[in-house]
Each structure stands twice: as C-alpha cells, then as structure tokens.
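User: Please predict the structure of the protein below. I'd like the answer in structure-token form so I can feed it into my own downstream comparison script.

Assistant: Understood. Taking the following sequence of 751 residues as input:
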Amino acid sequence: MSRKLRFFKDQINKAGLMSSSRTVLQPDIDLEDLEVHLAEHEHELIEMNSNSDKLRQSYNELLEFKIVLQKACSFLISSHGRPVSDERELQENVYSNDDYIETASLLEQEMRPQPSNMSGLRFISGIICKFKVLRFERMLFRATRGNMLFNQAPAGEQIMDPISSEMIEKTVFVVFFSGEQARTKILKICEAFGANCYPVPEDISKQGQITREVTSRLTDLEATLDAGIRHRNKALASIADHLTKWMNLVRREKAVYDTLNMLNFDVTKKCLVGEGWCPMIAKTQMQEALQRATFDSNSQVGIIFHQMDAVESPPTYFRTNTFTNPYQEIVDAYGVARYQEANPAVYTTIIFPFLFALMFGDWGHGICLLLGALVLIARENKLSTQKLGSFMEMLFGGRYVILLMSLFSIYCGLIYNEFFSVPFHIFGASAYQCRDSSCRDAYTIGLIKYREPYPFGVDPSWRGSRSELSFLNSMKMKMSILFGVAHMNLGIILSYFNARFFGSSLDIRYQFVPQMIFLNSLFGYLSLLIIVKWCTGSQADLYHVMIYMFLSPTDSLGENQLFWGQRPLQIVLLLLAVVAVPWMLFPKPFILKKLHTERFQGRNYGILNTSEMDLEAEPDSARQHHHEEFNFSEVFVHQMIHSIEFVLGSVSNTASYLRLWALSLAHSELSTVFYEKVLLLAWGYDNLVIRLVGLTVFAFATAFILLMMESLSAFLHALRLHWVEFQNKFYFGDGYKFKPFSFASLTEDDD
C-alpha cells in the first residue's frame, strides 16, 4: 500500500498537480477497504498510462513521418533537378571544410532521366537525434566505403521523448545508395543509432496525398491525447484530495506493525510480551490506557503491566515546553545527559542569554533584537504550521532564546550606557564637570568629579575622554573574570550534587573538595582582590600581586597590599593549591583498589549474572551495573588525566572568559566606527543625497554586521563557554534520549 501511494504521489508530481492540503469530508475508511481502493486506482492509472504511452508513440511516429515527408521531398526534387557539378557528397574527413566531389558512377546514375529504381539508385529516409548525426554520418561513410550520398536538414520542431518526457531536437536525413548489400548495412546502422526510417514515395502527387492523410490523423490523435490527459488529471486530482489522509493512515499502520514486531511470544505462544521504558510520572496513565485498550478490544485476557529491573541504563527524558525546549536542545547538542544526572539546561536558561548580553551589550541593538523576537512570537501559531527554510526554522525555534538575549542585552546596554554606541544621561546628570569654565577642551584636558557617582551604569562623561578605553577595558576585563570564576564554581558545585545523588562519597572527598580548594585558592582569591580594589579605590597592581604570589610569596607587598594579613593569606592559599593537586590524583585510585581487593578476597570463581548481583553497585559509582574486571593502571591513568586536565583547565578556562571583555570591546568599537565615520560624517554635509546614502550605509552596516554577524559571534562564544568551561566540570553527557512511540513524531521519511 505504501508503494502504491508513492506511485500516486510521483504521478501527481509529474502531472504538475499539488496534493490538496484542505480537509476533505469523507467517512473513515478501514485498512482493508483502503487496500481495495488503492488497487483499483493503481490498475486504472497503469491502464491510462499504458494507453497514453501508446497514443504518444503513435503521435510521435506520425509527427516524425510528416516532418520526413516535408524535408525529404525537397532533397528528392533537388536530386533530379540539379546538375552533377552542384551536388555535394559526404566529406571524407568531417573536420575538413573542403568539398570532396567524386566522379563515381553513383552520381552519373543519379543524373539519368529514368526513375531511380530502374537506374539502381535507391534511398532511405528517416529521422535521428541531432547529437548523433556526426557519428551516424561517419559510420555510414565507412560502412559503404563512400558509395553513398548523405543529405540532412533540421526537423524544425522538437519532439517529445516518450521515455524521459523531454523535448529533444532531431534531424531528418536521406541516404542515396546503390545495391541491396548497402541497403542492409544502412538499415542495421539506422537501427543501432536509434534512427526511425520512414518510406517516402518519389511521386509528388502521392507525397501530397500521404501528407494530407498524416496531418488528418495527427489532428485526431492530438484531440484523443488531450482528452486522455484531462481524464487522467481528473483521476489524479480525486486521488490528491485524499492522498495525505491515506498516507498518514498507512504510515501509522506501518509504525504500529513495526512496533509490534519488537514484541516476543511468551512460552505458551498465546500472548505477546513487550519490554520498554516508561517515565515514572506516566506510569498511572500507561495503566489506564492499557485498561481502556483491554475494554475497547473486548479481550478475554487482561493486559498485565509489570515493573521490572533493567540491567542497562535507562534513557534520559526531560519535560520541556516551547520556552525551555531550545535551551535543552543547546545542551543536547553537546551530549544527552546520563540518566538522573544534573541537567545544565536549568541554568543555561538564564546564564546563556546573560553571557551573550555581556558581549553584545547595547540597548539600541537589544531593542532591534527584541522587536524581531516579538514578531516571531506574535506569529507563532501561523509560522508553526508552515514549512520554513532552514535559517527561518532555526530563528523560529529559538525565538524565546532571542527574546531573553535581547532583554539581557538591553539591561547590559544600560549598564554600559550605549545606544548604538551613543551615551545618554538617562539616570540623571554626570558626576563629572569640566576643569575649565570654558569647557571647550574638556575632553582633552580632563574632567573633575563634583557630585555623587552616576546612579546606574557607566557615567556618560567617560565617552570621548582620554581615559575612556583604559577605564572600560579594566572594568570589563575584571567583570569577565568575576563572572567566569562564579560560573566555574557553579559547575563544580553541581558535581557535588551529582556525587551526593549517586551516593559516591569518594567523588565528594577526592574530587569536589580539592577542586573547590584549587580553583578558589588562585582565581577565587583574584576575584576577592578585584572586589576589594573596587571597594577601596586602591591603586594596587593586581598583575604584580598574582605573579609574585608564585615567584616570591614571602616578600613584602609594599604599596600593592590591599588589606591587613594579605601576605600570610597568600602563602596559605598557595600551599592549599599545591596540596590539592596530589589530593585529586592519588587517593581515589588506591582506595578503589583496596575496596575491590577486600570485596573479592578469597573468590576464585566467577560471578553469577543474577538480577540481584546485576543490581549491586560498584563502590566507586552508583551508576555501574556491570561487573567489569578492575584494572588499577587504567583507573590511575584516567584519574591522572582528569587531574591534569582540571589543573591546566582552571588557568585556560579563566583566560577563556576574557572573551566576554574582548567581544564587548569589539562590538562597542565597531558601533562607534559606524556611528562616527559613516552617520556623523554624512550628516556633516549639507546635502540631502549624501545624508540619505550615509543613513542607508549605517542602517545596512548595523543590520548585517552588528545585528547578524556580531550576534552570531556572541552566540557561538557563549555556546563555547557553556559547553567547555561550564559543563566539563560536572557533565558526562553520554546518555541517550527517551524516544517514545508517537504518531505525531512520524515523518514522510518513515515511509
């Protein structure tokens, strides 16, 4: 049935008809009745196609015959009416432009006034595809050793190929020759090249009579073909109205049978046994559905629902909605979560758009993104039913991601005080004033503070001042480190909840604790110094403090001291960081080896694969269901790799968060360049055309470079920070998705 439906679909597409998307009122049809209907329709279509092909073939033959009659007659008339010197014979070399005239008896006989059949000169006329003419002519010349005359002329109209239904160009030919042997050779060559030969009488009156008869038959055939095509299209249109419903019905039935094939017979061969996964929250619904199925089918044997213990790890299933689904997809693109491990998508929902906004912060650009997101959300019902392109489908699927990214971009833009790179006095007057009363050179000489700090965000007076770049760079770089350290700490804390949930105390004592100590002894301390420096207004050089914390921890800090007791605190933190490395590396492998030895001490026999033993967990992991041979060297190497990766990754990951500063700076500078060098420059001319051109260039640069390319760049960098810097602290991502049987998830590919 599926094959027949595909056949109908191909026929509808070839006929140029569209499958109807409207709902056709029709009674529900059983599968058995549908099978009969499809067989009838298929038989009818095959018969119509066969008749149509025969008619088309007859039409093509008559059309070719008509063309051959018209073209060949001119050759025959010219061959009797012109002298020998005007005749042209076939060129010996097809690439030569010289006419090769041979004074053979063939042409002498052609000149004689008696009929060609009495003189021994005969001819064959026909039609051949245009691209085969050169090879065909060469082959005839060689087969007859030049004893022939080949005339050709373009057909003048294209003829449909009955096999491919394509219009192809053809050429009419007439071959003059002498002798029965040459005739046999020429006919065989015509057959080999697919040339169609047609008899043309030499008598002009007969030619005219045959031409009129052929034309009359062509007119009749054309009318018959048109009627047949209309009848066939009418039949296909009636099928097209029901095709979608029929295909859905067959697709569902196939999916049901495919699922039933996964079930097994029980020992009595009287009922089927199926094993599958079911979410715990849907257990009651499953039982109710099975009871309904038993009642609806009038089954004498009830369906037994039994919960069993499984050896393999269950699939992972998270309940999502239209808002949270794109964030879950972002996480799943990295890897599907292990069964029951912490789901990063919960935190990604807020942190991902916020990290994007730190790099994209401009409330003018944020408003543009917000408008785009609101348009997609407002047309949600309409767009969800349409077939979109790959780019639009991606934008529509992430409409709520764009919404949050735009809102956070507006928030960060207000903090950065940037509206298309222009600062505004939104929250009051600036805290700075001009050094001079004239204020003419205020941006070059400098500003002085005369009131309380600007209440929210960056003071607008920093824009254009001498120290603008150094101030903003310092602020954004330190801010990036603070957010980065907080983000990585969140990842390590989630590893603690994973270990506690799975009951792995080893992971808590020998991974979580030393990792927290190492990260915060170095970069947590750096974050503390940044906050203290901001709060106290100190001029201490944090680069110097961090470098000499490693090179000479006992030396005096001098003017770089931020608080009392800083030097001994640095020594303690440095020692803790040094101790944390072997703490991560050595204890866990040796403890695992000791526990394994104690557990299997004195056992010289294999373990029976009973359900009780299968469910027993290894001491190092509550997730381990299979008993594998303990390999100490493998465990030690794995732990060593994990420890080295964390130690080196702490440095590289912290540095990686500086991309928040770099991209924010790049976005701000690009906005400034387009504003000052395009818009303001064009506005400086007192010419409407130049101003319009400048405004157009500024609008296109903002839309395509700042809103599209820069947003894509910030999106990818935020994605990397989540996948690499955050998720590698706790996320295994080696699970597999729960894919329940669902009619809604069936696609056309499932045919």
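That's the full token string. Residues 1-77+119-262 form one domain.
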